[in-house]
Specification:
There is one protein chain. The protein starts with a helix and ends in a 19-residue tail after the last helix. 31% of the residues lie in helices and 0% in strands. The chain is an all-alpha fold.
Length: 104
Amino acid sequence: MDVGEFQNQIENEKERIMIYQTPKRIFENTGYVNPEQSYCVFIENVRNHHNQDMKTMVDIGRYFSIFAPRQSGKTTLFKIFAQNLETDSNYIFILMSFENCETY
């Protein structure tokens, strides 16, 4: 094989090698989730089996739970929901965490 054939072979190999691209979003593993940088659940996508959004459920006096894997944006979702409720004088949003509570 001469030098020209070898260079062509190298160029062909370069085309076959997948070039790494930085992901558009990441999975968080600590702290709050930044919705612009991380995978998360967006508030407009949260609905119950009656196709009611979170605000509608609160307005009619229903309670709801969010079940999702850790670091998927549950707390961030509720913080965004609280910001949306701040414009409504009928509600006061209180965020509580029982994460560090001990059982006796």
